[in-house]
Specification:
CATH class of the largest domain in chain B: Alpha Beta
Order of helices and strands of chain A: HHEEHHHHHHHHHHHHH
Shape of chain A: globular
CATH topology of the largest domain in chain A: MetI-like fold
CATH class of the largest domain in chain A: Mainly Alpha
Helix content of chain B: 25-40%
Radius of gyration of chain A: 24 Å
CATH superfamily of the largest domain in chain B: Periplasmic binding protein-like II
Number of domains of chain B: 3
Strand content of chain B: 15-25%
Number of domains of chain A: 2
Helix content of chain A: over 70%
Oligomer: heterodimer
CATH architecture of the largest domain in chain B: 3-Layer(aba) Sandwich
Strand order of the largest sheet of chain A: 1-2
Number of helices of chain B: 16
């Protein structure tokens, strides 16, 4: 998912020409354009080869048909007919969006709080750096390991349940701790909160401290400063974090599979199942659907906040 | 990079093969013995029989190199069906063969070159374990075990002298249980959906096998009478999935598993007390000192079989080496190695020589162990006096209710299975 995000940022973030003023000589203008094209070429080439071409291929294959073990090039709407006509697709899509929304709300709250603490409460820059690095420590291990390590912790005979039992809080182990929506969202929050913290922290650090003093001088309470000064100024950071978290959660398949014990499905798992069964065209059609939904969500977000202007 | 290297060495091998053929026409056996040492055969298959111990032993006994790649059954099917040049030997299951054989990526094998062909168990030849046994439902191995001749992509109904796969390994699967956490006898497949085990049951999430286990349950409950559990009609699929979905919504299942390790962990941690399981997974749970039984059930077993197929691009010296490998495979050492893990060999009598009388008695004849039984890896699996779950070979393989299979309505079934998982 990050590559898509990058490309979006790339296409939206093309630097505007410096000035519309006409240069004096035509030949000079020509060479300036040439340099621009040349400078853009490597990235354009990489994106074309490794992003645009594969996605185009997926889109093409999504119209093909498949038998048990072979893929037949054709132009057939069958994959989409089945996909859009099946109640399962919509239920699964809804589930995917539900995971994304809940994870987003929790990571945003956590991420904003952590970033606020780091940016405004920790005064010394050394401490700020140290605490920030502390946040990244979990990222030193693979995210699959971080996710799977929850399983023995949350299990029926796991550490969480045995601790609660021994404290007398519960008398029956809690089944919903593992292999449930709870455990899926817990893992998502654990995996992705940092993606919220970093961009929000980054924008908060750029807020001119004199604005906060001004707000305080003007008689604003702490809460009012937060709501009317800090929050609006952190919007670009929140938006970048949101895009990260949403795309990561919507594109996920492995977390849902492991943490729900294969009991829940999201779109990623539908795609994975299709691939496992050699149904590439059907997997492609599902991917295209997921891509469209994700792009729509991001499109709406970008309408709400003009990241380019605010950064 | 490594691909092109491999191709290069393959080509040079083929050249070597031609030379060896010329040489073998003349009486010069020394050249043959040296040439075969340079042969490398690439085998891939599911983890069950793709064991490094086998590759090592091949190097010792036959002199050539066997490269093993272990994949899951989806990936195996995919590779066998789509990348015939990426392997020399495919170690696949019979139901996978039903999908892969029609692609023509594998070549028919001449049974006259298989020394122990006459001793192969009846299941893989005419389908009958003993002359009076009835053939179970599903993709019984003998129905996809023969083709009409060299170059054939069809399946022959009887022994034609040309095999699609040489059988190597098979077993009868059933439910695994934790006797210590259940505390009462389990006798029927219906117990998987017994509300007593709500939130403590599991099923494997590999559609083609999972649906069979589900069918065993539904049939045992008396809810559905199947024409053929291995080849269900749409209506049968719908009704099966309806029963399973209802149970799922009611919270019957703790989890579904897809890999061997997941099934072991679910059982060993006590998250699950009854579930579909594979026999080595039971062994793995037991070797941690946790009681686990591969429970024989009155409705019978769901069985599976695997075999070795040769890539259609294999010829010359590597092909001869492959036949030598197959003959070696059936000559007993591998059979003994696999049988000591609880599987069965296609030619059990040759394996007997590679097992102690105590091991043979325990694993094959269903007799109580006289001394502790340990796996080839040294884990103790049974104490003196213990009897194998399900008893003797004939007791277990004689009660197969259904073989793993691919249905005509496979695509429909897969979609319904996906709905069940997403429900």
């Amino acid at each position: 998912m990050p590559p898509e995000t990058l490309s979006l940022a790339g296409s939206a973030g093309t630097p505007p020409l410096a000035r519309p003023a006409a240069p004096r000589r035509a030949s000079w203008r020509g060479s300036r354009h040439l340099t621009g094209w040349l400078l853009a070429a490597p990235l354009a080439l990489v994106l074309a080869l490794f992003l645009v071409a594969p996605i185009a291929m997926i889109a093409v294959v999504s119209f093909w048909t498949a038998t048990e073990f072979s893929i037949v090039p054709a132009f057939s709407l069958e994959n989409y007919q089945f996909l859009l006509g099946s109640g399962v697709t919509w239920r699964v899509l809804l589930n995917t969006v539900k995971y994304a929304a809940i994870t987003w709300a929790i990571t945003l709250t956590l991420g904003f709080t952590v970033a606020y603490f780091l940016a405004f409460h920790v005064r010394s820059q050394a401490w700020q750096t140290a605490l920030f690095l502390l946040c990244t420590i979990p990222f030193w291990t693979s995210n699959i390991i971080r996710m799977i390590s929850w399983i023995p912790f949350l299990g029926r005979e796991g550490i969480a349940n045995s601790a609660l039992l021994s404290w007398g809080v519960i008398d029956q182990p809690l089944d919903w701790l593992l292999f449930s929506d709870f455990s899926v969202i817990l893992a998502f929050v654990h995996l992705y909160t940092l993606f919220m913290v970093v961009p929000i922290f980054n924008t908060m650090m750029r807020i001119d401290r004199r604005l906060l003093e001004a707000a305080s001088d003007a008689g604003a309470s702490g809460l009012q400063t937060l709501r009317h000064v800090v929050l609006p100024l952190t919007r670009p950071g929140i938006m970048i974090g949101t895009i990260f978290v949403l795309t990561l959660v919507m594109g996920d398949f492995i977390t849902v599979r492991f943490m729900s014990g294969s009991q829940s499905a999201n779109v990623g798992r539908l795609i994975q199942n299709d691939i496992g069964l050699l149904q590439y065209p059907s997997a492609s059609a599902t991917s295209v659907l997921l891509l469209i939904v994700t792009l729509m969500v991001i499109g709406v977000l970008l309408r709400l906040v003009d990241i380019r202007k605010e950064l | 990079m490594s691909m092109s290297k491999m191709r290069y060495s393959r080509r040079s091998l083929l050249k070597g093969g031609a030379a060896a053929f010329a040489a073998s026409a003349l009486p010069a056996p020394m050249i043959w013995a040296q040439e075969i040492k340079d042969v490398t055969l690439r085998q891939f298959g599911t983890g069950v029989s793709n064991l490094n111990e086998v590759a090592q032993k091949v190097k010792e006994d036959l002199g050539f190199t066997l490269e093993m790649t272990a994949l899951d059954s989806d990936a195996v099917t995919q590779r066998a069906a789509t990348q015939p040049d990426s392997f020399d030997i495919a170690d696949i299951e019979y139901w996978i063969a039903k999908k892969v054989w029609p692609t023509g990526n594998l070549q028919a094998m001449d049974t006259s070159k298989i020394a122990n062909y006459g001793k192969i168990v009846g299941i893989f030849r005419d389908g009958k374990l003993t002359p009076e046994s009835t053939i179970a439902q599903g993709t019984a191995p003998h129905t996809v075990g023969f083709t009409s001749g060299p170059g054939g992509t069809d399946f022959a109904a009887e022994e034609t002298g040309w095999m699609t796969l040489i059988p190597t390994i098979y077993n009868a699967d059933t439910l695994g249980i934790r006797p210590d956490l259940i505390g009462r006898p389990i006798e029927s497949w219906t117990e998987l959906l017994n509300p007593e085990f709500a939130g403590k049951a599991s099923l494997l999430d590999i559609s083609s096998i999972g649906i069979m286990d589900a069918a065993m349950v539904c049939e045992a409950m008396g809810e559905i009478q199947y024409g053929d559990k291995g080849n269900m009609t749409r209506d049968e699929i719908d009704r099966t999935m309806a029963i399973m979905t209802e149970a799922k919504r009611a919270g019957q299942f703790r989890s579904f598993w897809k890999t061997f390790d997941e099934s072991v962990n679910l059982m060993a941690s006590g998250e699950v007390v009854i579930q579909s399981m594979w026999s080595p997974a039971i062994t793995a749970v037991k070797s941690r000192g946790i009681p686990c039984v591969y429970q024989p059930l009155k409705e019978g077993y769901r069985s599976w079989g695997g075999g070795i197929g040769l890539s259609s691009s294999l010829s010359g010296l590597p092909l001869d080496a492959a036949y030598e490998y197959i003959n070696w495979y059936l000559s007993g050492w591998v059979g003994g190695f696999l049988m000591r893990q609880g599987y069965y060999s296609a030619v059990p009598e040759t394996s007997k020589a590679f097992m102690s009388p105590n091991e043979w008695g325990y694993w094959f004849e269903g007799k109580p162990a006289a001394e502790p039984i340990s796996s080839p890896f040294g884990d103790v699996l049974a104490q003196p006096g213990e009897v194998r779950d399900g008893g003797s070979f004939h007791e277990r393989m004689g009660h197969v209710a259904c073989w793993n299979s691919v249905m005509d309505e496979n695509q429909y079934m897969v979609r319904k299975w996906n709905e069940f998982i997403a429900a």
